[in-house]
Amino acid sequence: MQDEEKQKQQAELSRGSLDPQSMTTQSHKERIQASWYRCEQFGLEHGSRPDFATLPKGTLTDLIDQHRSLLETTENEVLPYYENILSNSACMIVLADRQGHVLNTWGQPRFGSAAEHGLIGGNQWTEMGVGTNAIGTALITGEAIQVGRDEHFLRANRFMVGSASPIYNTKNDLVGVLDISSDAYLPQDHTFGMVKLMSLSVENRLIFSAFQQEHFILSFNTNVVSLDSHWSGILVLDENGTIVSANRRAEVVLARDLALLNINQVFDIQMREIKHHPFSLPMKLIAMGRYQFYVKVIPPVQQIMRVPDFRQRTDYVAPIQPEPLVMNEKKPELEKAEKVKKTDDIGVLDIPDNVIPLAELQHGDERVERLVRQAHKIMEKDIPILIHGETGAGKEIFVRSLHYHSSRSKEMLVAVNCAAIPAELVESELFGYEKGAFTGAQNRGSIGLIRRAHRGTLFLDEIGEMPMAVQSRLLRVLQERVVTPLGSTEAFPVDIKLISATNRILKEEVKEGRFRQDLYYRISGLNIELPALRERTDKAELIRYLHERLRKEEPGPALSSDMLELLVRHPWPGNMRQLAHVLKVGMAMADEEELEEWHLPDDFFDDLDAMGQVDDSASSKAASEQDEPLEDLIPRLLNEFKGNVSQTAKTAGVSRNTVYKYAKLKDENEE
Questions:
Q1: Which among 374, 427, 422 has a CA at the least distance from the CA of 402?
Q2: How far apart are CA 141 and CA 541, in angstroms?
């Protein structure tokens, strides 16, 4: 019974149905066993080669830009504290994002070449691709873990020991993983403790970066000499004494949810006393009515002073600016004529190879043709565009095409995924900051994404994910057309074409209080709905067009009429993104031979199965094959298909895992 219970728990772990709290109660051995079980479910074997799914250089550069604050905080504010310890150890420090992609490494490994150990920028260390490993397993469990040499699932990784600890942001969202890996026989308990302390240090510095400008920060500990240590609890207070953020240590020490409590509900002190207390003098306070702590107050960097600004009211109307005097009255008309000539014909401009001409965004669907023409005309007017559409429907492709077919094409298109930037960094990323504006800021400051788009196009994707505080600042920028960087009093004028996109119903978000009504009406000039791939009437022509574009990038097989019919029948829940993925996989598997069903990925047929549109002949063939025992059928089909697991599983009517299972049994029997 115990074995059955453990198998059930492991199955739940592999599906991610157990909550993180239950994972914390597991022993180290149980975590490693659960990870090995997941690896088997992924179809991995101990002799499998690691699949790092290396990112292209351009994608890695974008990823590093997105995590610039996390990288700089780690390198400039945390690692120097441990430099003496780490310089005497043969180890490598690795920072990865929340998907397991390596962002940067520090240290000189003795592992050999980078190609051998795989700890290089852009490589992805997930359990699915690399088996049990410190980074991937920490991501799944959400807890710090150390993976010994023989605890790695893949033999290829058993040359090293990895110790990894997740990094959480101010909203308690996992944003990255810090890892120390080594092939040396170091005192591993020491290494494990150090990586946990380092990740906590990064979290604390992120809190300071996000809040030190305008908030009071309280550091507390049981010992007065430890107030500046990374193990101290941290509370962030607004001017009224409300706790707006806290580190994990504070939550653990005080053992309660601190969100939006007032400081007088935690410590025996009022906010007015904190404001007037000498900042260099620690004080002794009682927490929760019984625990004694030493507390240090860190005041805001900027003096908090609220000056009323009546322009923030929703009924404010900016004064009309007088038209400038022009010596030659014909000049504006000439400029207007040139602009019309430049943008009247769709698809005639010189555009980059990776941009689809506007005329080729539609292939017979009247609705798409109409919205393309509408958006193209609005691009030359001071009217924002709001695009609605499902994930993967091609919103960014559409925006890139609009930008490069407009008079703004010579300037930058700046695309911002509002959901991908940590909430506490959105403000500094969008509006920029002055040199030394906050702890962790670059020495040279940052111009910000909005100012980068000056005279160009600013594309705010997934704008419904934007935090409310940032919505207020964005509204002010759109009203006044100026940007004031963090830490600065200077306002910079901006001329941008704003295009926003969302897969949410923003009117519903406004009703629920998650999106500002005044901002909604600022961004929704022209509202267009980009249809899902399954809804398009030109689906066949669109599939044929995308296939031909992919063949220009890399030679591949032509589409037969039967294959095109199968692709048209598909529901495409992942839209254009899924279509491109399926075509790329199929063309790679076909290797210039005729594209057949078995070349396509398994999840393609899962979607068809859900529709009940699986080919009847294939189903009947699979049913007839079931008369033969699986232990005989699967080895025979594997031999017929020269080891192709996907085609074997499809013909036998079983999953890939079942194929792996019976193939493994055959090998064991032969031994």
A1: 374
A2: 45
Residues 329, 337: Cα–Cα separation, whole Å: 14
Q: Which residues of the chain have pLDDT under 50?
A: 1-24, 324-345, 347-348, 438-442, 613-625
Crossing angle of helices 395-404 and 366-378, rounded to 10°:
50
Angle, CA of 288, 294 and 298, to the nearest 5°:
105
Sign of the dihedral through C-alpha 6, 12, 16, 17: negative
Q: What is the pLDDT of residues 143-194, one digit of tens each?
A: 999 999 899 999 989 888 999 999 988 777 888 999 988 876 655 667 788 8
Angle (CA) 330 334 339, round 5°: 150
Q: How many residues does the chain have?
A: 671
CA distance 333 to 404: 23
DSSP string, 386-454: EEE--TTSSHHHHHHHHHHTSTTTTS-EEEEETTTS-GGGHHHHHH-B-TTSSTT--TT-B--HHHHTT
Any idea of the CA torsion for 658, 662, 664, 666, to the nearest 10 degrees?
-170
Pairing of the two strands 233-237 and 216-221:
antiparallel
Q: What is the pLDDT of residue 667?
A: 60
* Residues contacting 322, CB < 8 A, separation 6+: none
Name residues whose C-beta falls within 8 Å of residue 537's C-beta, 6 or more positions apart in sequence. Answer: 364, 365, 366, 367
Is 396 in contact with 459 (CB distance < 8 Å)? Answer: yes
Q: Which whole-number Å values give the CA distances from 333 to 320, 338, 339, in the listed order?
A: 22, 9, 10
Asked if 227 and 249 count as a contact pair (C-beta separation under 8 A), the reply is no
| Maximum C-alpha span of the chain | 94
Q: For residue range 314-334, what is the model confidence (pLDDT) as tens digits?
A: 555 666 555 544 444 444 444
* Rounded Cα gap, residues 31 and 143, in angstroms: 10
Burial (CB count <10 Å: 0-12, 13-18, 19+), residue 335: exposed
Residue 124, SS3 per DSSP: strand
Adjacent-strand bridge partners of 235:
218, 246
Looking at residue 456, what is its pLDDT?
Answer: 93
Give the pLDDT score at 6.
41
21's CB contacts (< 8 A; 6+ apart) are: none
Per-residue pLDDT, 307 = 53
Please give the pLDDT value at position 210.
Answer: 82
Which element (helix H / strand E) includes 335? helix 330-343
Q: Which sign, positive or negative, has the C-alpha torsion 343, 348, 351, 357?
A: positive
Closest CA relative to residue 51, chosen from 157, 177, 159: 157
* pTM: predicted TM-score of the whole model, two decimal places: 0.45
Of 144, 233, 221, 143, whose CA–CA distance to 180 is shortest?
144
Rounded Cα distance, 422 and 293, in Å: 32
pLDDT in the model for residue 340: 37
